[in-house]
Each structure stands twice: as C-alpha cells, then as structure tokens.
Amino acid sequence: MDTTVIAIDGFASTGKSTLSKRLAAHIGFTYVDTGYMFRVIALLVLENKWLNKEEITLAPLTAALPELQFSWLSQKEGQKLMAVNGKVYGEELRTAEVSNLVSKVAAIPAVRTHLLQQQRDLSKSASVVMDGRDIGTVVFPDAQYKFFLNATPSIRAQRRFEEMQDKGIPGTYEEVLANVIQRDQMDSSRAVAPLKKAEDAIEIDTSSLNVDEVFALLCDYLA
Ligand code: DC
Question: Which residue puts its alpha carbon closest to atom 14 of ligand 1?
Fold first, then answer.
C-alpha cells in the first residue's frame, strides 16, 4: 500500500501536536505523536525505578524494550488511539517528572532504535502526520512533506505554562522555562538523531502566529 508521510518536527511547545492532530483530522490521515512514545518509556523508568540517583539503569530498560509493542486501538468515527501493550496513556505522561526525564530517555540509542522500527511499522498501513524531532531527518528522510516549527524559548514556556494551568498540572513559569531550555539543549546536542531541521524541510517560526494562522500556512503548503 502506498502511504503518504507528513513529518512535523521542531522544538518543544511550538504547537506541533495541536497542529499535527488538527491537520491529520482535516485531511483524513492518522496522527502519530512520537513524543508520546518516548514519554511512555520515561514513565516506565520512573514507575519501575530503573534509576540510580539521577542516572537511568540501562540493563532492565533495554531488556524490557522488545516487549514494548505500540499499536492502534480504533475508536468511533475513525479515530485511533495509540496503545502500548494494550494500554492507552494520558495526562500521566505530561507531569514535570516525566518531562524532566524524557530527554535523557530519548538520548539512549537502544530506545531510539526500538522506537524507530515501531514508528515505521505504525505508518505502513495508513498515511500519517507524524510529529517529533527526527522524523524528517531519520525516521522518514523521504517523507513527501516536511515541516520544522520553531518559536522563542520564552514564548514556548509561556504556552506550556498556560496549558499546564488549564489542566491543573503544578509548576511555575520559571520551572517550565528552565525545562524548555534544558530540553532544547539536550535534544539538539545528543549523539543519535539530534533535533535539527532537515535540509529540505519548510521552517515556520510560530512566535507571532496563533494556531489558526500556522494551520492555514500548513494547508497552503499542502494545497
Ligand atoms: O514532543 P514531546 O515534548 O512530547 O517530546 C518528549 C521528548 O521526547 C522530547 O524531549 C524529545 C523526545 N523526542 C525525540 O527525541 N524524538 C522524537 N521523535 C519525539 C520526541
């Protein structure tokens, strides 16, 4: 089956997931949130205490990876939810604890190798809008469409802080800004599949644009 991939990469809190979800619904594609996949593994590290002080203990994590199978659960109206060994995760993936650990998890080569294969498999049966950090560079270097979203760190932290307040997730603006800056640094400097714009990606600076304006731009490029 011939499928189409729209890769939407970029920095944290640039609106990637909101826009990717909306775009997928608009054009009838499946939305794949690859950050969710890394966050699930970060949560498992916390739950299973695969940690020695601040460091992740690799042996139990790498032993558990082959058992971690990501799949689709069909919902009504064609919606799909991503399940991990049959379980669907929600807001427990958005806590500060998970956000603080996830870049470390994402820098582990064995984690990236496992998720790369899962991401490719999830896209075999359907056209997808996939958001992440390395979709246009590593996961699907031949994606038919590639976008790279950016915005200043303070604007991204403000957006994330407001979202957390709406959802009742605790944390201050200063903590969120520190986490955004730290994650940018870790995601951009890791050895494997660092966050960077693919040469052929279209870059959109969303600092002074609202979601509707960015959405309109994406639709214009696809038209
Ligand atoms: O998009 P997000 O904030 O949910 O992503 C969580 C973390 O996972 C982020 O720090 C970077 C990492 N990530 C990655 O390295 N590669 C991806 N394709 C997606 C996310």
Answer: 133
What's the predicted TM-score (pTM) here? 0.92
Domains and CATH numbers, the chain: 5-222 (3.40.50.300)
Residue 223 CA to ligand 1 center (angstroms) comes to 28
Mean pLDDT (the chain, rounded): 93
Q: What is the pLDDT of residue 96?
A: 83
Q: What is the mean pLDDT of residues 56-76?
A: 92
**Environment class of 208 (CB within 10 Å of its CB; exposed 0-12, middle 13-18, buried 19+):** exposed
51: pLDDT strictly greater than 80: yes
Pocket test for ligand 1, best of 116, 133, 176, 195 (most atoms within 8 A of CB): 133
Closest C-alpha residue for ligand 1 atom 13: 35
Q: Does the beta carbon of 10 sit less than 6 angstroms from any atom of ligand 1?
A: no
Atom of ligand 1 nearest to the CA of 34: 19
What is the torsion angle, in degrees rounded to the nearest 10, for the CA atoms of residue 141, residue 146, residue 150 and residue 156? Answer: -90
- Among 90-94, 144-148, 196-200, 204-208, the least confident range: 90-94
Q: Whose CA is nearest to atom 2 of ligand 1?
A: 35
Q: Is the pLDDT of residue 11 over 70?
A: yes
Using most ligand atoms within 8 A of CB, pick from 34, 36, 38 the residue to mutate for ligand 1: 38
Name beta bridge partners: 205.
150
Give percent of the chain above pLDDT 70: 98
